[in-house]
Every structure is written in C-alpha cells, then in structure tokens.
Amino acid sequence: MGKNTELLDSLYQHMITYYSGDPKRIQHFVKVHGFARLIGHMEAIPDETLLILEAAAYVHDIGIKPAERLYGSCSGNYQEELGPAPAADMLKQCGFSAGQIERITYLVGHHHTYNNIDGLDYQILVEADFLVNFYEDATGTDAIRHACETVFKTVSGREICRTMFDL
Question: What is the pLDDT of residues 49-60, one digit of tens each?
Fold first, then answer.
C-alpha cells in the first residue's frame, strides 16, 4: 500500500468517526469522493493533485457540524467559514503535509463558491458535489441541465452528468 493510499484511508476512517451516528453525511462524502476520484482519473490529473482532490472530497462538508451547532444551519457559506479549521486539524492528525493541508482547506473553504475556480482539483470537487446533490436533493431535470452546461467544465464531469441524468 502506498503513502497516498494510507493517508486517504486514515482520513476516510477519521471522517466516519467524525460523523458517527449520521449515516446520511457519511454516505454523502463517500459518494462525492467516488465521483471526484473517477473524474480525476478520467481527466488524467497528476497524482499529487488527485491526492488533494480525494482528501478534499472526504472533508468538504466537515463544517456542517460546527455550522449546525453555532448557527442552527448547514448553509454553504457557514460550511465554508467553519470547515477549514477542523479539516486542518484532522488532516494534520492523518499525516498530510502543510502544503497539502493549505490547499485542501482552501477547497473546503470555497467549495460552495462557483466563480473564480482556480484549479482542476477545485473544479472536479464542485462537479462531484453537484452530481451527488442533484440526486440527494431530487433536483429537477431543467436545473440539472442548466448546471451541467454552465457549472461543469470537465469533459468527464459533463459526460457523467449527461449519462446519469439522461440529458
């Protein structure tokens, strides 16, 4: 087993513990990770970028718990505000480097912001989260089609979206 696999498996386990008793949240991050990893492979992104992407997919919604505790809401802006600190703590416990933590927490702090997307890791994370949220939120076909055409930028993400939702 390689170093990246060990880091990601440790983070996966930490996130299951973090969301203990909340299978809906666990299922969500697992699905986002699955789509992010697949799109990352299909887009042939470099290994280090894939590691960042996969880790960010696991922890992208870590801010939900503190947002619900402090604000009684899991609104995206609260997740972005409150997610980076617990993500950084967990990533450090799992052995991620300072540079990796910096980028991953940036993604956590911006994953509901769809303008000024500054990297393929960020773009793919947004697309993977959309794919899962479309299904979980029972989004209508017109809204899915619009997002697929305007938010999705990767060839692979668009292909998955169109195929999954028969657009």
Answer: 999 999 999 999
| pTM of the predicted structure, to 2 decimals | 0.96
SS (H, E, C) 35-46: HHHHHHHHCCCC
Of the candidates 122, 114, 164, 157, the residue with the CA atom closest to the CA atom of residue 139: 164
- Residue pair 56/140 in contact by the 8 Å Cβ criterion: no
Task: Give the residue from 16, 21, 22, 51 showing the smallest Cα distance to 125.
Answer: 51
d(C-alpha 83, C-alpha 62), whole Å:
5
Domains of the chain, start order:
3-164 (1.10.3210.10)
Contact 61, 36 (CB under 8 A): no
The whole-angstrom separation of Cα 90 and Cα 41 is: 25
Residue 118 DSSP label: -
Q: Give me the pLDDT at residue 49, please.
A: 97
Give me the residue label for tokens 């017109």: 142
Over residues 101-129, the mean pLDDT reads 96
Closest CA to 148 of 165, 119, 113, 61: 165
Q: How far apart are CA 53 and CA 11, in angstroms?
A: 13
The H or E element containing residue 125 is: helix 120-136
